[in-house]
């Protein structure tokens, strides 16, 4: 896809003016970095960072059967999500392999707001509509109407609160959302969610206000060290936090059980049958491989597709990798046979015939609650 | 304008004739693309063993930044007779002086001609697009 065919968020020119390097991502031209990727990652771990997530897919699933329909289509138990709470889940095919992973916001008794990946949104939309059958449900794509920004890092609440009227952010719990007036815009959805492993918020409001809110946030958060953060650091942060990225840890060849996403999969009887349930139940009984963390003292950075060897035997493949400023080593995620998944196990990464030793470790590499 | 005492590859290596040898490095543009202006973003440079024979266009090494790995391609065929091993430990030299101190390898070429490569103005043209 050439630059000209890429979609742009309303903030595109703001990013370019700020010196961002723009790259294609999921059909969009997005900022990969404004400054150094490592400095941006540190900014989020130590202070707070601002992300443009206008590329993400946003869907509204509504109607009398919205909840039961989604319970048939996604892995998590939608019927059990409390009002104003959020759960992680996946949309899987019958074979248990995911079309995408999602956040599900319970916005009303018959309303669920769904956040999907940019590159998968059209597929998810078509898949859900195709399987709606007789269910009384409407599925609407609201991606283009809504801006989506994230503030991530320990100072995020302090940075955001000055712009928020009629809502005390400390009352918004983890994976909960509420509505507040942000920069004069009523009814802005504010959720305590993110993709970095830090405390923080994601906010949704009409797209036409994107530039003004972005600038006002940077101004209001200046004293907290708020700075814009690109997709490069976002990828490092999510990998450190052990969060999967579609197309890397999960895809049509990598199921969520072996990826360790049990918290997003419900086998409860009350949920009823759902797409992919039987296949994933079988994987759960006898998994053959496991997603693990790998870290290495060597200089080379693990990259997607690098082969892993145990002695002369090829045993797996790297899914993602990064220079980790938080761990202080080069890290990655990889699938290895269950027998080699124990922390401390050493395996070799192959770089065109040269080997570099890696050590298997538990995911996540970083947890703010478990330091 | 980049130095016109040498020739360029469209993959951003430069080649300069010095006596009987061809000195090879990468351009400031390549360094900027890899590091986006942050020298700390360069993490690794893999150079070949002395004595290795390379073909014109063959990958002789790799340079890696926080976000990507790039091949290093030989501008001419020949034998690698020297490498700048200091670079492997001091990647910042590439940001500071890609044209002189940041040289990577010296090749004893089978043919000294660099006529098949881009001159400085053609390279400028190439990176402008």
Automatic annotation (TrEMBL), chain A:
<dbReference type="InterPro" id="IPR022903">
    <property type="entry name" value="GcvT_bac"/>
</dbReference>
<dbReference type="GO" id="GO:0019464">
    <property type="term" value="P:glycine decarboxylation via glycine cleavage system"/>
</dbReference>
<dbReference type="GO" id="GO:0005829">
    <property type="term" value="C:cytosol"/>
</dbReference>
<dbReference type="InterPro" id="IPR006222">
    <property type="entry name" value="GCVT_N"/>
</dbReference>
<keyword id="KW-0032">Aminotransferase</keyword>
<dbReference type="Pfam" id="PF01571">
    <property type="entry name" value="GCV_T"/>
</dbReference>
<comment type="subunit">
    <text>The glycine cleavage system is composed of four proteins: P, T, L and H.</text>
</comment>
<comment type="similarity">
    <text>Belongs to the GcvT family.</text>
</comment>
<dbReference type="InterPro" id="IPR028896">
    <property type="entry name" value="GcvT/YgfZ/DmdA"/>
</dbReference>
<comment type="function">
    <text>The glycine cleavage system catalyzes the degradation of glycine.</text>
</comment>
<dbReference type="Pfam" id="PF08669">
    <property type="entry name" value="GCV_T_C"/>
</dbReference>
<dbReference type="InterPro" id="IPR027266">
    <property type="entry name" value="TrmE/GcvT-like"/>
</dbReference>
<dbReference type="InterPro" id="IPR013977">
    <property type="entry name" value="GcvT_C"/>
</dbReference>
<dbReference type="InterPro" id="IPR029043">
    <property type="entry name" value="GcvT/YgfZ_C"/>
</dbReference>
<keyword id="KW-0808">Transferase</keyword>
<feature type="domain" description="GCVT N-terminal">
    <location>
        <begin position="11"/>
        <end position="268"/>
    </location>
</feature>
<protein>
    <recommendedName>
        <fullName>Aminomethyltransferase</fullName>
        <ecNumber>2.1.2.10</ecNumber>
    </recommendedName>
</protein>
<dbReference type="GO" id="GO:0008483">
    <property type="term" value="F:transaminase activity"/>
</dbReference>
<dbReference type="GO" id="GO:0004047">
    <property type="term" value="F:aminomethyltransferase activity"/>
</dbReference>
<dbReference type="InterPro" id="IPR006223">
    <property type="entry name" value="GcvT"/>
</dbReference>
<feature type="binding site">
    <location>
        <position position="202"/>
    </location>
    <ligand>
        <name>substrate</name>
    </ligand>
</feature>
<dbReference type="GO" id="GO:0005960">
    <property type="term" value="C:glycine cleavage complex"/>
</dbReference>
From TrEMBL, chain B:
<comment type="similarity">
    <text>Belongs to the GcvH family.</text>
</comment>
<dbReference type="InterPro" id="IPR017453">
    <property type="entry name" value="GCV_H_sub"/>
</dbReference>
<dbReference type="Pfam" id="PF01597">
    <property type="entry name" value="GCV_H"/>
</dbReference>
<dbReference type="GO" id="GO:0019464">
    <property type="term" value="P:glycine decarboxylation via glycine cleavage system"/>
</dbReference>
<feature type="modified residue" description="N6-lipoyllysine">
    <location>
        <position position="67"/>
    </location>
</feature>
<keyword id="KW-0450">Lipoyl</keyword>
<feature type="domain" description="Lipoyl-binding">
    <location>
        <begin position="21"/>
        <end position="108"/>
    </location>
</feature>
<comment type="function">
    <text>The glycine cleavage system catalyzes the degradation of glycine. The H protein shuttles the methylamine group of glycine from the P protein to the T protein.</text>
</comment>
<dbReference type="InterPro" id="IPR002930">
    <property type="entry name" value="GCV_H"/>
</dbReference>
<dbReference type="InterPro" id="IPR033753">
    <property type="entry name" value="GCV_H/Fam206"/>
</dbReference>
<protein>
    <recommendedName>
        <fullName>Glycine cleavage system H protein</fullName>
    </recommendedName>
</protein>
<dbReference type="GO" id="GO:0009249">
    <property type="term" value="P:protein lipoylation"/>
</dbReference>
<dbReference type="InterPro" id="IPR003016">
    <property type="entry name" value="2-oxoA_DH_lipoyl-BS"/>
</dbReference>
<dbReference type="GO" id="GO:0005960">
    <property type="term" value="C:glycine cleavage complex"/>
</dbReference>
<dbReference type="InterPro" id="IPR011053">
    <property type="entry name" value="Single_hybrid_motif"/>
</dbReference>
<dbReference type="GO" id="GO:0005829">
    <property type="term" value="C:cytosol"/>
</dbReference>
<comment type="subunit">
    <text>The glycine cleavage system is composed of four proteins: P, T, L and H.</text>
</comment>
<dbReference type="InterPro" id="IPR000089">
    <property type="entry name" value="Biotin_lipoyl"/>
</dbReference>
